Amino acid sequence: METLKGAIPEGLKRMIGDSTVDDLSATSSSLHSFFHHFEPFHQLLTELADPKHALCGKSKDAALESKQLGNQCFSKGDYANALDCYTQALRKAPFEASDMENNFVATLYINRATVLHKMSLLTECLRDCTRALQICPSYAKAWYRRGKANASLGNYKDAECDLNMAKIMESSSSGKRQIESEQKNILDQCNSTSTGLQHKENTLTTVGEVPQGKLQCVTIPEKGRGMISSHDISPGSLVHSEEPYAVIILKHCRDSHCHYCLNDLPADRVPCRSCSVPLYCSQQCQTKAGGQVLRIFPEVHSAIEKLPSDLGEYAVKVIQGHDSKHETENITEHKHECQGVNWSAVLPSEVVLAGRILARFLSERRTSEHITYFVEKLLIVLLHYSSWLTMAYMLLMQELSHFYEHMLPESKLDTHIYSIVLLYCLNRSFGAAFSIDEVSISQVVIIISQIKVNCMTVVRLKSKDAHGFSDQFGEFPSCAYLTSNVEQVRVGKAIYKAGSLFNHSCQPNIHAYFLSRNLCIRTTKVIPAEGHLELSYGPQVGFWDCKDRLNFLKEEYMFQCQCTGCSKVNLSDIVLNGFCCVNPNCSGAVLDSRVINCEKQKIKNFMSQLKIDKNDDIHTVLNQNNASCHIQPGHCLKCGSYRDLVSSSAAVDKALIFIKRLLDAILSKEISNTTIADALKSLHWLRSNLHAYNKLIAEVEDNLAQAFCLLGELQLSMDHCKASIKILEKLYHPDDIVIAYELVKLCSIQLSTSDGAAMDTISRIGDIFSCYYGLHADLVFPYLKYLRR
């Protein structure tokens, strides 16, 4: 892409960079004309969209190479790498439906199943065996491995049936003797087992909950459309739930998360059948994404026709299990990308997402069951426009906002280039349905700009560096402790047509989270009738100060935030990066020039108010009666005393050198007494220069809590953890979800020391999580169920 961009004449670049929406037809036509006569452009299209040049296609030679590496790892007992090699082989192996009896893919599934069994991943092993049998029902080794997995799971009845099937399908006498020996072992295990209960696989199911109340979409001055409540809504109420119109996984999560549902991938991940890019958590997700259903008819398979009726019924039940019953939906998001071509793996996520939106719209238009819907939606448009792409553009313009004219010149140029490239790639998949002219290009430019400001980032909660914590399948040890950070990991981007109508606030009253790929929105505060429902687009009060939030929102979403958190003074924005007063008896805050420039007018407005709530913590850091001349860099907002910010900043920088050494020691788990002593001294320097509620102090207190935890000094760890939380409760609301994450750390230490206060902490964590996640709390944050035990 850089080659294309570099070749564009400077005059054309300026024309595009200065363009408005009204100029798009001209700019699109000019750039398209230039590319049409530019040979490297056509060479790029060939590399992106011609299956003959694809790097993402299937290759049996590459699959065989990965299989051989897997065999070598397996023979050495390196099961983790063997598992990865066999998965890569499955990803690359072509599916040869014509050769079902000696299918290479079925062999790979059994090789991986064997590794999974060795790793005690029995349920995953069972699923891989079933997948092999769905391809080749007469595969004796698959029935045998399935029987052993069922026996290990305690499913003795199924294990016996599996081994009977294996014995019938096995042709060699030595193989039959091995199976009979295994049957005897299973019979002995069954007789020695006190319970006859069958193993039940633990599956996380979505808790059904219907959104409460009715919301209204209204036009809000200076904000456009937004959502308001039609009645009073209490905190913790689910007010909205929605499936995405289109979704795309982010590139850094392609090997760790399902490309359809965006959940974590299991060990027995399922590849796409036609290309080597996506991985799925199940065949259901693979089918929904690509629309490819493996149709199995075992009842007419020659080997199964000869079975006794009861065993034949069992074989049919196994092979036609829930993993292969999923019906294909009419809208499949990956199908148009799934031809071995490279463009969906190379182009930016929002561009691929635009392709999925357009492909879905086209598919819906072509599907007969959607005719009535589109006649109703597009009747007026059909009278004036002949292009279906124009119809899609008109509908999206009604649903989503765009800020093309606020985009930076370079971003406008990139959007033009990607729009042309995307249309050519879609044209290779759909043919004449995607015409390429100045009208269609300009419309795709707007659609991509809409995606930039309307798409939502799908996140997952993740706790990293959990010392002493078992994984989600194990038990919570009585002596465990958790000093890791709970973070939101970005896994995908999605368009939610109704979800995009909720406006932003840096002090939100609703909270968005995701179950699989579905958006859920829940209230966190009381919302009165006709009250605005506002969520955070990323940064909020307490996380960043006002100037950083404003810059982020301007760059990412192209609007100037005017929410209450940014237009009125608040304690967090004053102290988050503030310095303390030189007067030890004064609790006032001292600000540098960057913060002063952002906060000065808000502070003046605050000081001019006639009536102020005396319980507001803002009074601890500034004086309403203070002269406006004290609202200057380096001057205390409460008493006016001056602090030398140059020397204070130098002291902070010096302290951070020792804190960095502490962090390195924590990472290596080699913490010396000298490192701890230097870090404690640095904390003292920070407290002598920074305001008591400065977020950096909270972070250092948290670092020390983690360090003492690793050293086994749990009481000291608890003290520093509490000190960190005390500061964060000033920066955020005490019932903010961020506080709950920090309380999880405190609770884990309390449990380790048998502190009686742990139950109160658990109760508080539960209350906050219930408000933010309701019945879905345990699904979103699995650690919560351990704390409740």
From TrEMBL:
PROSITE patterns: SET
Record-annotated SET domain positions: 213-538
PANTHER family: TETRATRICOPEPTIDE REPEAT (TPR)-LIKE SUPERFAMILY PROTEIN
Name of this protein: SET domain-containing protein
Pfam annotation, one family: SET
The organism's place on the tree of life at top rank: Eukaryota
SUPFAM superfamilies noted in UniProt: SET domain (SSF82199), TPR-like (SSF48452)
UniProt cross-references to InterPro entries, sorted A to Z: SET_dom (IPR001214), SET_dom_sf (IPR046341), TPR-like_helical_dom_sf (IPR011990), TPR_rpt (IPR019734)
